[in-house]
What we know:
By secondary structure, this protein is α+β, with helices and mostly antiparallel strands. Helix content is 45%, strand content 11%. It has helices at 2-19, 24-39, 81-92, 112-136, 144-168, 199-209, 219-229, 240-249, 259-270, 308-317, 323-326, 329-332, 352-367, 391-403, and strands spanning 48-51, 65-68, 93-94, 97-98, 105-110, 169-176, 186-191, 237-239, 277-279, 281-283, 286-288, 304-306. The strands form four sheets. Strands 1-2-5-6-7 form a five-stranded mixed sheet, with helices on both faces. The chain has a three-stranded antiparallel sheet with strand order 8-12-9. The chain has a two-stranded antiparallel sheet with strand order 3-4. The chain is elongated. It starts with a helix and ends in a 9-residue tail after the last helix.
Amino acid sequence: MLALRYNKRTMRREMEKRKQRFEDKNEVRVRMAAVLKKLVSNVSFFDSTHIFTSHGDVPDDSALRLIILAPEQFYSCDEPRLAVDAVLDHVRNHGAKFRHCGNRLIFLAPDHSILIQLRDCIRITLSWNSIVEDVKAKHLVPDNFQTQQYIKELQSAEDELLRVARECYKWLLFPAQDNPTVTKLKVKAFPLNTDGGTLESEIEQVCINNELVITAWPPIYLRDKLKKYYWKSNKPAVGAMAFWDDTLHHPYLPRFKNRSVLEQAIVEGTSSRDFFGTAYVYRDGKFDGFKLCDANVQLDDTLLLIQPDVAKAYETANPPTTPSERIPSNSSSSGLTSRTFHGNVIINTSTAKKHMAQIAEEIIAVLTKEPKVEVSVTLEIQAKFPSSASEKTKRAVKETAQVLNFKNADWK
């Protein structure tokens, strides 16, 4: 027993002596980043996670990102300034450029009161690890019992380090803005529960419960936002993608988990007459591709969301015509038996998507309603370049054509 007590004291003394080797800005910081990487390795709620990453190295795109702030950017209720400044710096800047998608960033910050303990745990772990490595390299030659004790101490230190790191990085921060007239952004903080559950589940729960990230959105909320900020008497329609683009930048708008959340809200809203109508183009007082209470829509750059009262009035003034009403009378009253139909049309490339959608809905859909009919559709595309297409264009078109099962996709 005395020998064991002596060995333990010797081991502890050696560990304490080695702790002084490790500096906060070097080994301690590197190990802290590694521990945090392990902690967030299963956090799948975000598209990407960045640990101690400068704002210039965080991409400026629509991906939802979790930024883990460096230890010197700590947060406390009494002194939030360092963390707040770091958040605003990331939200506003992308290196030397202005950041467009600042509303896609959420931040995890360390608690100032636990940082000292975390750094000490890291030094202890690094010390035990260096002892074990020296034993493996035969720089130290303890007996088997001592060797096992070193390994046991290292494992205990690593377990304690994970626990303390989880307890330290407990503040979820995000940019906030009450309305577009308020130019100064705020930073709100939510504490994570560190006693139960995984870090992943706690972050997800706080994000969803506090609507920091929207995973499902009823169309009534979309209508209310459009009514509040977008629809005007002289502007009764807004581009759906323009709204999505604004949510990437402005914190007074919802932060969707991804674009599909907005798309689902639009689809649900278009199945009713109460939320908005849709169209593809508005010109000369007319909505091309106008629909009301028709969920057959797709979120893209052409989709317009129309104020519901305006959409209803437009529908009344421009009642929809059925395909049969548009067929010339001499084509159906001739009494001749028609066993085949063949049609071709030249499509303007600038309105190709809208035009092909109309063909699918108003020609192909009508034909396929006939019993036992066989309908085939062939699409032919020709593109002529004044000199030569770029290699990038040729490669992109070729690869996409293969994915879309084109029979022929040749460049000459």
